[in-house]
Amino acid sequence: MTKRKTAILLHKSLRGSRLAQVALIVLLWLAGEAVSRSTGIPVPGSVLGLFGLLYLLLTGTIHLSTMRRGAYFLLADMLLFFIPAVLAVLDHSEFLGLVGLKVLAVIVAGTLVVMCVTALAVDVGYRLMLRLENRHAVS
Amino acid sequence: MPSPETILITAFWSVATIAIYLLSKRTYRRWPAIWSSPMVLTPVLLAALALSLHTTYSEYIGATRWLMVILGPVTVAFAIPIYEQRAMIRRYWPVLIFGIVVGSGTAILTAWALASLLSIDGTLRLSLLPRSISTPFAMSISENIGGVPDLTALFVVLTGVLGATLGENLLRVLPLKSSLARGALFGMGAHGVGVAKANQIGAEEGSVAGLVMVLVGLVNVLAAPLLAYILR
């Protein structure tokens, strides 16, 4: 079998099967972990895997339709995969008292500030960008 | 070779976690409200079950740690929404980068300042720093800067649930002209839950929020070694 035929066959089998897509994503993750560990760069292997997949998509090696279902299958139930960590609260009965209220205050006040600052920054940046573009269009 | 008891405990808590999660999702579809969102209901029900069975956190997490390993592939899967939004990135990248850098800086500074003000310090303060970032990224950053990743996951969930509600009210007060700003507000401030809320407000807001959430995670993971260096 030629290389091209193998590639076409691979794409066909990937497109049809969500499980195969998830398997390929896991493979990219493992590769990323291996690279992260062997080179010692301080970026998590999963993020390297993300960039790997992005590269494959941008170069056209993998088509979006061959990965989309598998990726959204994982993303849709992301919550399930970090719920166990949330139960860490069991080990922290002190959160039921003053410390808990303090943490809550930090989160509420901090989030309000973050939201206001971010939204206003983006709004100002957006208007600035449009104005610059208009000026270029006129001149 | 693990003992039969360990295998039994692992199987029990794994099945319980998945079953309660699926049940919560169904409950939310029937009665959509903040209290019934799977992000609130699942941990509350699981905690009640663990308390009634006198299970400690270390026993529980020992049995369900494998679920969290899947966060690795989930992070890789984020490449797909980034790729799908490439037109928006190409068009608005200066504004997006500006918003993300300003927002992330504000998130870390306010968490640090407010915690210090309320005399929260040590690992608890460090665990609060990455709370505005999507969970898989936040946990890895927390570990990097010397926090407790599990506590960070708890704070991320709280931030998401509270932030989505706060953000909806903020929209009525803030004079925002662009859907870009409205989306960024939710993506930066309330990650996953915020994206769901932004999608209810508008399709454009939703996709901006999703994109901002992912980019915030990426930018912060890449900047974390620098932050860790500053904190040390």
Describe the structure in your own words.
The complex is a heterodimer of chains A (139) and B (232). With 139 residues, chain A is an all-alpha fold. Chain A has helices at residues 3-16, 18-39, 45-58, 68-76, 78-86, 98-138. Chain A has two domains: 1-76, no CATH class; 82-139. Chain A has six helices and no strands. The mean pLDDT of chain A is 87. Chain B has 232 residues and is mostly helical. Chain B has two domains: 1-55; 71-231, no CATH class. Chain B is 84% helix and 0% strand. Chain B has eleven helices and no strands. Chain B has helices spanning 4-30, 38-52, 57-69, 71-77, 79-84, 86-117, 122-128, 135-145, 149-173, 179-201, 203-231. Chain B is globular. The chains are: A mainly alpha (139), B mainly alpha (232).
Compose a concise summary of this entry.
By secondary structure, chain A is an all-alpha fold. Chain A has helices at residues 3-16, 18-39, 45-58, 68-76, 78-86, 98-138. Chain B has helices at 4-30, 38-52, 57-69, 71-77, 79-84, 86-117, 122-128, 135-145, 149-173, 179-201, 203-231.
The average pLDDT of chain A is 87
Level of helix content of chain A? Answer: over 70%
Reading the helices and strands of chain A in chain order gives HHHHHH
Q: Average pLDDT across residues of chain B?
A: 89
Number of domains of chain B: 2
Task: State the main characteristics.
heterodimer; A: 139 residues; mainly alpha; 2 domains; B: 232 residues; 11 helices; membrane (chain B); transmembrane helix (chain B); transmembrane (chain B)
Architecture blueprint of SSEs:
The complex is a heterodimer of chains A (139) and B (232).
Chain A: H1 3-16, H2 18-39, H3 45-58, H4 68-76, H5 78-86, H6 98-138
Chain B: H1 4-30, H2 38-52, H3 57-69, H4 71-77, H5 79-84, H6 86-117, H7 122-128, H8 135-145, H9 149-173, H10 179-201, H11 203-231
Helix pairs in contact in B: 1-2, 1-3, 6-11, 8-9, 8-11, 9-10, 10-11
